[in-house]
User: Fold this.
Amino acid sequence: MDETFSIGELAKAADVSVETIRYYHRCGLLPLPERPYGSFRRYPPQSLQRLRFIRRAQALGFTLDEVRTLLQLNDGGSCATVRTLAEHKLRVVEERLRDLRVLRTELRKLTSQCRANPDQASCPLVDALCDAG
Assistant:
């Protein structure tokens, strides 16, 4: 017989909180196991696998809606659809990286100006923020 988990054991094994598991139930990401009469719900090992899948997908930047789609596709969908979703996510990540590089360059410039500013009364970074509007 496979090992089953209480909700607390499952949370600990998946390194999430019990409230996270309950939230995933409400969102439809994690099926709610049957509760035998007069007993507690027991989660099968597949629930732990599913939680780990959700967490890995989130770590890659997928939203919960996208995770739901991935889970549906994992349950019998097309690899082409998964690839399309992943390619879209990659484009979003690449755009963020470009934006972050521009932000890094601007912050480096402003902090350098602050270091070189002998006048403590006026800060170039604060001045730049005031002028940005």
Q: What stands out?
A: The chain has two domains: 1-77, 82-133. Residues 1-77 form a domain with the Multidrug-efflux Transporter Regulator; Chain: A; Domain 2 fold (CATH 1.10.1660.10). The chain has a mean pLDDT of 86.
